[in-house]
Amino acid sequence: MAGDPITEMARRLARLHPDAPCQTLARRLVKEANGAITLHQARMRMQRQFGQHGARHRKRIKAAAPRAARKSGEIYAMPKSMAESWTPHVMSVVGNVGILSDVHVPYHSETAVAAAVGHLKDQGLSALLLNGDIADFYAISRYMKDPKQRDFKSELESVRDFLAYLRHEFPAIPIVFKEGNHENRWVQWLWQHAAEISDDPRMSLHSWLDFDKHKIEWVEDQRPVMLGKLPVLHGHELPKGMAAPVNVARGAFLRTLSTVLVGHSHRTSNHAESDLWHKETGCWSTGCLCDLRPAYSVVNRWNWGFAMVTVHKDKTFDVHNYRVMQDGTVRTA
Fold first, then answer.
1. What is the model's pTM?
2. Per residue in 263-280, pLDDT tens?
3. Is residue 57 within 8 Å of 25, Cβ to Cβ?
4. Both 176 and 29 in a single domain?
């Protein structure tokens, strides 16, 4: 009878195990019903749930998990998913965390980098986050390139030297390097030109840029970094299809509807929204530390900048978003 406890047990078993044999589920139903029905009765109930109990009954009783006709012993199971879990990299740190992004070595600004590093050294950092596009990798980009500037070996050497410089300036704190879209040019170039060895660990940027030597931790592309409760993205990961916003931080909010700090756009901005319950959501974008007038974009709205996040023991945080002036002085945004 529909609606009785044993029928509900049969319905639940059918939904949980839609591909299991009726006889197997019938035995389980007898056990769950504490022997209140026979195995034959249990099998009939399971068949009803799968729509295998005759045309007359199918018109009267709606099956919970109807099955297509199949031969005895055939089981069609759902294929295993190849989807990978998307989990953040958590920096378990309390205190001041410096954030540098969009340095674009070897097209960096020595004035801006020196100002940012000098200011952060005075803050007593607990960790340093390199938030993508530290390297430019111009020589292996997919865009049209000036042949006179295609010296990838020299670019790699400059990036190695920059990382050695940072480790010298911050000798005792964790340094985390999050992959940006420019670093991702490396693996895309390998897939296109050397696919057979692209998965060799010796071909990774981790190996080529001496991360082990400098004790630098690598965070792969598309993966957020958590500073307490603050998610940090490079910025190229955000959904596409919207025009470049006047306020980059507001654009990040509209794309994520979440608190987030991003780089990528080379522009310093802040934005806050309050919901119906007056819960505040804040978003920030950081400036760059590279040449402000590269040949491919001489006219732009970029500015030099960097950030520092103070992470508290309860994982709350304060964001200090800085601009670097043309004379190298540091100002709050």
1. 0.79
2. 999 999 999 999 999 999
3. no
4. no
